[in-house]
Amino acid sequence: QVQLVESGGGLVQAGGSLRLSCAASGRTFSSYTMGWFRQAPGKEREFVAAIRWTDITYYADSVKGRFTISRDNAKNTVYLQMNSLKPEDTAFYYCAAATTWGVSPWNFGVYDYWGQGTQVTVSS
User: Poorest-confidence range of 16-20, 104-108, 113-117?
Assistant: First the structure.
């Protein structure tokens, strides 16, 4: 069983920055594909970013160039650095872990474990 705990959400003005963290339990964290998804009120959950165990990263077009995903295997933690935030980035952000190799990381169906989420609100 893997537990994921997100932190770092909050209220920020447009143009500002936040860094989300996701701490994971489990002794094989370094082998997981880790992803970030978000869901705004009335909208479906959408892919934001993901990182494989090889450190290959993937981004949604809407965040490319503004967000950076990274991982620290020694701390069992994945991060999402969010810069140049926009009001449309407002959503509940979820961390997820996929334990199977070779999955399509933009597909939320491949993830085995999810965190409880953290709210990000960007004011205009």
Answer: 104-108
